[in-house]
């Protein structure tokens, strides 16, 4: 049987409440041993070891937990007696953690993130089957060389593409630009696509050499916007600002002006979009060359922030950072 390590970080999958029909509960209340005890069938598929990395709601996620998690996954997957890793995680920031690991972990072995939308004490909880399916994906040889994946609601999604699209529904996760890459039905794993954007062993980011990530803020654009949040971000010494722009990454004039000044003072400004799907295209309505901005391809703001933080550990050169947004 394959050896799988489950790293628990918290979230609703480890959540508990007082009633099966009350929507209020605490995320990250149940330990990894109890999570595993609820799904005894996974022991027929794999030798399971559990480790607790954190026990938080994923809205509390920090760069420090990301670094700790990535280093631990890297360390585990270097061992011959570990065949794959499953990470249980809250769903709020799961897409960002998944993309962070996709860019930093150096292994071809399966790395699977899983969560749930209903806590263990809810009626019809989705966590047990999601966990069972996640372990199946981690034990499957079909999962080699797929980069980091997210398993939710019988679907397999690539870390770069997946995003949370609903606040509470069990089908909250979707790869809005490209579609899911596979399905898993009571442990039956099938893939239909392989991610082409570079990941894991093919990236330039070496987590063993990164102990701190630079500050990158997200500023959300809107009608009648202001320069105030850009100025606050610059004052707080952000090295990068991701702008969640309107439409094709467009900006309110005053905000654009403040960001152009920030850029000329060495802050890297990346144009994303608040729309949710599609690319922010170079040579659109915004003259990136003149203003000193880069475009984030089709990464949403929270994923663009992850890549910009990692990119800034390597270089502040805008052309090189722009290349990274087309590569990863
Ligand atoms: N469904 C969930 O996992 C949400 C719980 C919590 N907010 C978290 O992200 O951890």
From TrEMBL:
Residues 215-325 form the Asparaginase/glutaminase C-terminal domain. Substrate binds at residues 58, 91-92. Gene3D superfamilies: 3.40.50.40, L-asparaginase, N-terminal domain. The active site is at residues 12, 91. Residues 3-195 form the L-asparaginase N-terminal domain. GO terms for molecular function: asparaginase activity. GO terms for biological process: asparagine metabolic process. SUPFAM superfamilies: Glutaminase/Asparaginase (SSF53774). Transmembrane segments: none annotated. Keywords: Hydrolase, Signal. Belongs to the asparaginase 1 family. This is L-asparagine amidohydrolase. It comes from Arcobacter arenosus. The lineage of its organism: Bacteria, Pseudomonadati, Campylobacterota, Epsilonproteobacteria, Campylobacterales.
């Amino acid at each position: 049987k394959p050896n799988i390590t489950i790293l628990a970080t918290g979230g609703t999958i480890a959540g508990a409440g007082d009633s099966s029909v009350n929507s209020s509960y605490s995320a990250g209340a149940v330990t990894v041993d109890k999570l595993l005890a609820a799904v005894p069938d996974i022991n027929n598929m794999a030798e399971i070891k559990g480790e607790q990395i954190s026990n938080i709601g994923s809205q509390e996620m920090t760069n420090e937990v990301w670094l700790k998690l990535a280093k631990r996954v890297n360390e585990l997957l270097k061992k011959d007696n570990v065949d794959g890793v499953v990470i249980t995680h809250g769903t709020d920031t799961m897409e960002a953690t998944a993309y962070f690991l996709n860019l930093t972990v150096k292994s071809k072995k399966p790395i699977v993130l899983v969560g749930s939308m209903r806590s263990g004490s809810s009626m019809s909880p989705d966590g047990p089957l999601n966990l069972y399916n996640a372990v199946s994906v981690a034990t499957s040889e079909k999962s080699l060389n797929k980069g980091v994946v997210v398993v939710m609601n019988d679907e397999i999604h690539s870390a770069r593409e997946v995003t949370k699209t609903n606040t509470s529904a069990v089908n909250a996760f979707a790869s809005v630009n490209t579609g899911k890459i596979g399905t898993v039905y009571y442990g039956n794993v099938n893939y239909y696509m392989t991610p082409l954007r570079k990941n894991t062993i093919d990236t330039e980011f070496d987590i063993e050499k990164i102990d701190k990530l630079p500050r990158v803020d997200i500023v959300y654009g809107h009608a009648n916007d202001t320069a105030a949040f850009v100025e606050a971000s610059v004052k707080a010494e952000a090295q990068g600002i991701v702008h969640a722009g309107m439409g094709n990454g467009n900006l309110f004039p005053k905000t654009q002006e403040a960001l152009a000044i920030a850029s000329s003072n060495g802050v890297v400004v990346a144009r994303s979009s608040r729309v949710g799907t599609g690319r922010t295209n170079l040579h659109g309505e915004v003259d990136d060359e003149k203003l000193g901005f880069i475009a984030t391809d089709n990464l949403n703001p929270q994923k663009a922030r992850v890549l910009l933080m990692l990119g800034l550990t390597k270089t502040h050169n805008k052309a090189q950072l722009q290349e990274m947004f087309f590569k990863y």
